[in-house]
Amino acid sequence: MTQLTIVNPATGQTLTTLDCDNADSLAFKAAAARRAQAGWAATPLSERQAVLQRFRALLLERKPELARLLSQEVGKPIAQAHQELKGFLGRFDFLMQRAEPVLADQLVYEEAGLQEIIRQEPLGVIANISAWNYPWLVGCNVFVPALLAGNAVLYKPSELASLTGLAMVELFQLAGLPADLFVSVIGAGDVGQALLEQDIDGVFFTGSWATGQRIAAAMAERLIPVQLELGGKDPVYVCEDVDIAATAAALADGAFYNNGQSCCAVERIYVHHSIYDAFVQALVGVVQGFKQGDPLDPETYLGALTRGEAQSALLQAQIKDALAQGARLECGGHQADGPGHFFAPTVLSQVKHSMRLMREESFGPIIGVQAVADDAEAVQLMNDTEYGLTAAVYTPDQQRAEVLLRQLNTGSAYWNCCDRISPRLPWSGRQHSGLGLTLSDVGLLAFAQPRAWHLKSAG
Ligand code: NAD
Questions:
Q1: What residue owns the CA closest to ligand 1's atom 40?
Q2: Tell me, what's the pLDDT at 72?
Q3: Would the CB of 263 count as within 6 Å of ligand 1?
Q4: Is the minimum distance from the CB of 283 to ligand 1 under 6 angstroms?
Q5: Looking at the predicted structure, is the pLDDT value of residue 318 above 80?
């Protein structure tokens, strides 16, 4: 049996090894999930919610140990691990509150002897293939509404967040969720690929564009729903009328929180030329103040690079390419000390769009800052990307911001904020950033299929 070695990226130490799934174990789990799903679909929503509520209570009880596990497994600062669990609860509560009204039958027409009703029915057994950077948050977007809507979930955590995935399964079991309804699938990409070959009714994926594209191609002939929440190269435009210090602090956090390993992290900053030098100076000042080190230290802001050597190599290649094309290294630019994988927070100025730094997702503690002549150039550069997750404009002038944001092809538009997700709003990417959406009332409906009921009384 293939084994998965779980390594703490902050220490390089092996935490444990896990047995990976294979085609046989997956077929067994998928068949069991299908049997369990029939009973779950027939269970009233209020009873499903009661089980999920117990899951929430157990999570709260175990929050400190779950945060610690997450921190050790992915190298996330412990304060941010707690923040993630808090964010999970906020999303969870919203989805629980909205399930009843959103999933309720809708009587859309009635006349003597005839009723027309839209009824939301579960998809069946869904595969949830997930990412490691926010396993609780991106998991919540999928498995909570999926279970509420009456589905079974084959949950494949990232190979870099498998212990957290197993902890979720344990909590559901303790909460009394029927056996086989929320099942872990352990392994790397090959196991994810094998999961796609099972008897499933939908695929909900969070991860990179490259994998998302592979999954879409693999599923093309199956004619089942495929949703893809993918990467980004999210831009921000800083107008000349901002409070420079406050904006620099906000964007430093937007770019470096979670070590820049957020799908909606700020990845490109464009600044009006008239405040460019002052802005760069303020940004570098904030970034140099970030505390990097032991993720279990409550004061740490920058933890370890979860993907370790591979991510470090990508960041170094982007920096080398930028410097060769005339960028200026303002701070960082190298691996930081440590037994594990740490990367010094890096700011590059004088950058341009021929550089990999401004085109490829970096997914690390690094940011490029480019000067622009005016609003038109900002819009042109912000749209010069294959991605389309989020975009932000900083200015006190709402009308100016909305005019600019309307011209950008992204799933989310931010005025004076960034790196932000609300459970009340749809979360979606355009172009290479994804297909379909989660969160909000619309995201709940992604896990149901509306069925048309034509009900005519006899005679
Ligand atoms: P990844 O694409 O490397 O892996 C994601 C998952 O896919 C993992 O579970 C992996 O084992 C699995 N996988 C890999 N190859 C597969 C295949 N051929 N078939 C089926 N499954 C396969 O991504 P990652 O490194 O885990 O996550 C980082 C990426 O995720 C970044 O690009 C980030 O922007 C993106 N992301 C997007 C969102 C969003 O909401 N849009 C949220 C979080 C992360």
A1: 229
A2: 98
A3: yes
A4: no
A5: yes
Instruction: Name the residue with the closest Cα to ligand 1, atom 21.
Output: 192
pLDDT for position 338: 76
Tell me how far apart the alpha carbons of residues 437 and 430 are, in angstroms, rounded to a whole number. 10
Q: Both tokens of residue 223?
A: 């004619």
Ligand 1 site, residue 129, Cβ cutoff 6 A = yes
Is the CB of 410 inside a 6 Å radius of any atom of ligand 1? Answer: no
Which pTM does this prediction carry?
0.97
Domains parsed from the chain with CATH numbers: 3-230+429-456 (3.40.605.10), 234-415 (3.40.309.10)
Band of the pLDDT at 191, cuts 50, 70, 90?
A: very high
Residue nearest to atom 9 of ligand 1 (CA): 158
**Residue-level pLDDT at 117:** 98
Counting ligand 1 atoms within 8 A of each CB, the residue from 84, 133, 421 with the most, and so the one to mutate, is 133
The structure tokens listed for 262 are 């957020």
Region of residue 180 (phi > 0: left; psi between -120 and 50: alpha; otherwise: beta): left
Ligand 1, atom 19, residue with closest C-alpha: 193
Q: Which of 232, 290, 243, 242 is nearest to 432 (CA)?
A: 232
List pLDDT tens digits, range 105-158.
999 999 999 999 999 999 999 999 999 999 999 999 999 999 999 999 999 999
The closest alpha carbon to 366, from 382, 392, 388, 343, belongs to 343
Partners of residue 154 on adjacent β-strands: 127, 183
Q: Is the CB of 186 under 6 A from ligand 1?
A: no
- By annotation, the residues acting in catalysis are 229, 263
For 145-172, what is each residue's pLDDT tens digit? Answer: 999 999 999 999 999 999 999 999 999 9
Which residues are CB-neighbours of 392 under 8 A, at least 6 positions away?
234, 235, 236, 237, 254, 266, 413, 414, 415, 416, 417, 418
Q: Is residue 278 within 8 Å of residue 245, measured between CB atoms?
A: no
Q: At CB < 8 A and 24+ separation, what contacts does 377-381 make?
A: 377/270, 378/237, 378/270, 378/272, 378/404, 379/237, 379/404, 379/407, 379/408, 381/235, 381/268, 381/270, 381/353
